[in-house]
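Students often ask what a 'structure token' actually looks like in practice. Rather than answer in the abstract, let us consider Solute carrier organic anion transporter family member, a protein of 721 residues. Its sequence is given first.
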Amino acid sequence: MEISSKENAQFFSKDIILPVDRSSFKSESSASKEKQSCCGGIKIFLGALSFVYFAKALSGSYLKSTITQIERRFDIPSSLVGVIDGSFEIGNLLIIILVSYFGAKLHRPRIIGAGCLIMSAGTFLIAMPQFFMGRYRYERFASIINSTGSLSPCLQEKSQIPHSALEKSQAKINAGCEKEAGSSMWIYVLLGNLLRGIGETPIQPLGLTYIDDYAVEENAALYIGCVQTLAIIGPIFGFLLGSLCAKLYVDIGFVDLDSVTITHKDVQWVGAWWLGYLIAGVISVLASIPFWFLPKHLPKPEGRKDSSSSSEQSKFITEDNKERQKSYQQHLKIAELAKGKSLEFVSSLLNFLPSLKNLFGNPVYFLYLCASIIQFNSLIGMVTYKPKYIEQQYGQTSSKTNFVIGLINIPAVAFGIFSGGLIMKKFRINVLGAAKLSLGSSFFGYLLLLSLFAMGCENSDVAGLTVSYQGTKQITHYEQALFSECNSGCLCSKNDWDPICGENGITYISACLAGCQASNGSGKSTVFYNCSCVGILDSSSRSSSAVVGPCQKGNECPKMFLYFLVISVITSYTLSVGGTPGYILLLRCIKPHLKSFALGIYTLAVRVLAGIPAPVYFGVAIDTTCLKWGSKRCGGRGACRLYDSRALRYIYLGLTLVLGTVSIFFSIAVLWILRKRSAPQDETISASRRGTGLTKKRKDNFVNSDHLIQTTYWPEKETRL
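Now compare that with the structural description of the same chain:
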């Protein structure tokens, strides 16, 4: 007979000797030990997986923060940066099917550990070009770099340049052309990001299923929530790390920083983008270590030992699923007769196509999938180029931009997701309510985004690009507009980008194009004098001086930036509130046995049709607003130096709003179908309540109600949280 431990203590305290079933006692003690080891093992796995989620979120967000740095360092356009950003999704898609199918049958913790190592290898590979492509070279006039130089910025004749200086200059250009192949090393950044995507693939599907398999059923949701919380914290640290590295010069530790003549506020400044990738790679290596010591299987909790599925899943198995059970039994018979893997694969394939047809035959699922794809195109493009937009529109540095996004925007998104789940639970919102909440958050979010059109800054006054040399406001894309009578006597290049700020408040592309005849000082403190183009607007001033660096934007720009931050935070929160209701709508609009398949198709479609193309075509659209392209040392177009602020604002915000508006129309269609299908169900329920027959009519009405729900693919037990 079985005796509890408390009863055993009473018996021994009274010195009464009773027959005790030792096997029972041993089984109880072993069960308690097993329970302790189970709890301890799953908590260790939970901690390790949370740290991995933090590591992958940190490295992913750090990549977003270095978009502009990579663009300047490798002298590439925004469209190519978009391809680099989308390569992560490509790597993820390459092996996601293999990992999802075979991963569950193998040692899941070790596969996750191997994925972390691959992810860290990709992160290290992204940073490698910094150590092989030489030092970063920015455009500066010779007298700024070398204090002993006595050359005039405005070279009236080529004979003014000493022959030795010409030879040295030509030798430097030739040397630069020989090393120009280093500019194609952005391919290693692309391959590294591709490798990151491959390494990240097993973390989510295998990690979450491992928790769901071996955690106590009521604790599984809490554990997964903890993991997702750490995933939200990761981007905060990623953008803050990007802010820190953007303040450090790209070649820190390799060159004398006193010889650097530009500051982090300069358009040509490139921060130590590679340093953050080394830190993120080390964190990924550390995150992989615990998984190599975790077992393949953990002891299952007592309540889940005798069941292959959870009690919640068993609720969805009803008598109305006889057809599905019958087809499943037929497949089992085929598998038993075949006794081979090939026919099992064929039977699975035969089951795959009807399931896919069943899924896309559900109008609610199909329309919501279309709405999500278009909305994610809008959001991914907006997030990818948000740092660039802030830098170019409001004249902010990369460091400050990343700091603001990491400390303000990301927490607003996290709080919005949490609020959406809290609202769903507090008010016990059903599927129709979830659709309304998701639609409302999208509508008001994009409505707020519309107000950002009025919160932009005007173009900086740049002679020959946004303003004429006489001070007339105009936008020109003609390179000949860079030349004027005031600099006609100078031997200037139209490809140079070495901006100076005249005392008249206008930026000139170079000291030569400003017609400056003399300079004083060296490095960042260089001052140019007798600039003929600067003195045109103010003939009374004879000094006509200019200093190194572009002029600051207008006085209204800092105020506009503050307004932009406020609206941006509110918009991020509003759009995020609809995230959880939308996810619930996705789960509740389909049959229970198609949930996993539906989520897989949803993830695949969003990544292929939004994650990969959105950064590319957003980048192409942004490139069309460029006013001044940089040039590579051996010819060819480099990175953009100056954008048309107004055109950039209309392209960036307009593309985001157009895509968001289209997704809202699809969401309205989803809500309309749900309303249409819920109307007969409500009439049936109200009729059952008004009926006089208590037993028979109620039964009939419930049967009819169940029939209506089955045909619309949302079982009543799944319509509420």
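One point worth highlighting: The domain at 354-455+555-682 is CATH 1.20.1250.20 (Growth Hormone; Chain: A;). Ask yourself how you might have guessed this from the sequence alone, and why that guess would often be unreliable.
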